[in-house]
Design brief:
Elements lengths: L3 E2 L3 H10 L1 E4 L3 E7 L3 H7 L8 E4 L8 H21 L5 E7 L8 H14 L5 H4 L2
Helix pairs in contact: 3-4
């Protein structure tokens, strides 16, 4: 399933300010209900709601190589979770922490699953695992 990207600064600020937060060892996840999900559903070719996802990586994490690796790992972990079933119609911001640089994608996927369960983003049949 394709997901939308979160590009506008005001949406990042809104999610950080008013959204719910769950933190894990390697990532922090922020979630806010998308008020424009119905409009985007009409524009979507499959006519279904989508999540708009943004990744925010600070320069404190390291140079460009480290920041890009962190974003690749987070994107791949999110793709794995979408395959398992994630609720749609949300704005999601994922912030990698410094500890993400020394771990594999599987560890980040498990940590992100924990955060998604805390924020009730996983579908019911997958939370029993």
């Amino acid at each position: 399933m394709r997901y939308g990207t979160l590009c506008e600064n005001h949406l990042f600020s809104k999610v950080f300010k008013t959204g719910k937060r769950a933190g894990g060892r390697y990532v922090a996840v922020y979630r806010l209900k998308d008020l424009h999900a119905a409009r985007l559903k009409k524009e979507n070719p499959r006519k279904e709601k989508i999540n708009r996802v943004g990744i925010s990586v600070s320069k404190k994490l390291g140079g460009a190589v480290e920041r890009n690796r962190a974003k690749r790992v987070v994107r791949e972990a999110y793709r794995a979770l979408v395959g398992e079933g994630v609720r749609t119609g949300n704005l999601i911001v994922i912030v990698p922490k410094n500890t993400i640089l020394s771990v594999k994608t599987g560890d980040v996927t498990g940590d992100m699953r924990y955060c998604f369960e805390k924020l009730e983003l996983l579908t019911h049949e997958n939370t029993a695992l």
